[in-house]
Write a structure and sequence with these properties.
By secondary structure, the chain is an all-alpha fold. The protein has a domain of 36 residues. The protein is 71% helix and 0% strand. The protein is built from four helices and no strands. It is flat and about 85 Å long.
Amino acid sequence: MAEKKQEKRVVKNAKPGLGARFKRFFTNIRAEIKRVVWPDREKLIHSTATVLMIIIAVSIILWAFDSIINVILTNIGFYTPAAVNEAAPAVTEILPTVTGG
């Protein structure tokens, strides 16, 4: 039992300090960044244009779908813009109260 506690302490003490771990982390990041194959200017422009075109196309498709659904729901009565703006009529009727006795 005592041996296990001593082994845990040895492992705990062998762990490098916080500063050393941060230094190793940033050193590893720097090494990975050097290994990255960065695209050339032409490839970067082509990829950016492709992404922008896809975003525009999807936006147009979503806008068209939303407009079609809006027209359908308005025509069948689920969505009526006039009803949304109207206020509910105020209740002016006073009900008599019954007293216990």
